[in-house]
Amino acid sequence: MLSWMLYATLVAGMVGLAAVAWERAASLCRFASRWAWVAALALSVSIPVVHTLAPLPMSERFLEVVGTSSIGNLDAEVSAGPSMQAPLSQNAGVQAIDQWLGAVWLCLSATASIMFALGLYAVRREQRLGTVAVVAGCPVVMTENLGPAVIGLTNPTILLPGWIRQMSARQREMVIAHELQHVQAKDQWLIGAAICVLMIFPWNVALWWQLKRLRLAIELDCDQRVLRAQFGPNEYGQALLDAASLGARDTVVVPALIESASSLEKRIRTMLRSRAPHDKPAIVILALASLAICATAAALNPPAARPWTPHPTAGSVIAAPRVLSPQHELEVQWQSLVQAIAHFEPGVLNADRSRTPYIFIAADNDGRVVRHHLEFRPSWQRDPISSDELQNMFAALAGEPTAASAVFLQLRLGSRRFGPNPALVILGVNPGGKPIDVAAPAIDMSAIRRDRNWLEAFLIRKTENERAVIKLADPAAIDVGLTQGTELWMALSAEGEFVRGGRRNIITDPNESRRFVENALLGARIGDVVRGTAVRDAAGNRVTVAWHWLQQ
Could you state, in order of their start, the residue ranges of all structural domains in the chain? Predict the structure, then answer.
């Protein structure tokens, strides 16, 4: 939810900048500028919502799995190693944050609604306590100190404060003309709609800024209409200054009626400004800039998470299969190895950085550490260790002359953790060893299984996972099969979790296949693309699948 809220705020900010440019261009053209902010508010809300709710193309059959209790039975089928059996479970921390943000959202909406309701109540109360009068030939309600303002949507009423009597008859006529222009243009409807938007999205600070700019644009447009009707800019500007001076003692505060000194100054400057020779090119540049910013905001990729999608309740999804991308699978394996090293040999992280750490680890079939040993050698000594020497060393490490490791992996881990000299890690398999700490991090062993027995079991488990994902997404692909010339496409998260899939004509080019899925999933960025599976349908035909792993 937090990512979506930040995305919506960013879109509103960019659209607001576009509205600033368009408003300036409209002002130079002597056109109404309030519509720039009306459009900004509409786009600021519609772009994030439409992008999030946009339906997928009807030409494809898309599948989106949220998770049901029936998936729980897959846990027994996919009981593979650590890289293959990780359950599809919601991160408890993220879920808690989303729930907290949802509660904050509701509280802010309620607070904003109460704030505007209290403001409206205060205005209505002043209206009820006021007296009906006729000023400059127009019926109004005289209040103690509220106004000038227009209240009401379907039956608008002009409110005037008591200090209006201190102004001259000519100035009172200007005030009435100004408020009548608001009524004729139905400006109160625009303010009301903007307030409703803010009550729904009160956390979006860019929308509050847009409301302030909309109010100013409404006043600027109204000033222009009044000046075109019958009054000169000098006397009208003086009337605004006198009204601001007399109304400085207002005690009733209504958010939608606040007028700042800077806004008044801009209104007067706009009225007195004359056309300049460079206005025409400036208008073109501003208009193009506004359109470019709007297009950029519309093209922003929304986050995958929807703010109104509920998280599965605890226990609703027990487990689900994963099919890790080749690259991510390696990252998971090396990460598990580093975690095991940090647990069993923490001294390597704070050791003398001028020497090369040699880390010897013996693990059982499940990746549980059986023995470990750390030694430091001169920095110039970084050569791999021969197989015979390793056999002897691991036999001595295990304390059993016959405890030979069938498989060894020698690799260098270079990072700021290990200093300028990368650590040389020698990992061996001791199938009969007993783990020294079953609660410690386990090492993902799939990367070092090279002999037939290891590899065969690994591929069988991988195929079972792929079958489970296909069965989850499109059962008919296995039960009935695919028509000739078609294939399945699957979009998976970086962790191998199924996101969406569908059927399409066969695409053999990985780049074209990547573009196909990125066009289908707005905001998606595809990493690895792999075609084909060992899964067969009921008739024995191979089920062709194009697997796509999302980077975001």
Answer: 2-299, 326-450, 453-550
**Burial (Cβ within 10 Å: 0-12, 13-18, ≥19) of residue 85:** middle
- Please answer whether residues 518 and 524 qualify as being in contact, where contact means their C-beta atoms are separated by less than 8 angstroms: yes
Question: Class assignment of domain 453-550?
Answer: alpha beta
What is the Cα–Cα distance from 266 to 211, expressed in whole angstroms? 17
In angstroms, the CA 180 to CA 42 distance is 26
Q: What digits encode the pLDDT tens for the residues 400-446?
A: 544 445 555 666 665 544 445 667 777 777 767 788 888 888 887 76
188-202 mean pLDDT:
92
- Beta bridge partner(s), residue 140: 133
Amino acid at 133: A
Q: Which tokens sit at 475?
A: 């059962």
Q: Cα(448)–Cα(254) distance, rounded to whole angstroms?
A: 70
The residue behind tokens 């053999």 is 508
Which of 38, 37, 33, 21 has the alpha carbon at shortest distance from 283? 21
CB 367 within 8 A of CB 81: yes
Q: How many residues does the chain have?
A: 552
379 backbone φψ class: left, alpha, beta (φ>0; ψ -120 to 50): alpha
How would you class 378 by CB atoms within 10 Å of its CB: exposed for 0-12, middle for 13-18, buried for 19 or more?
exposed
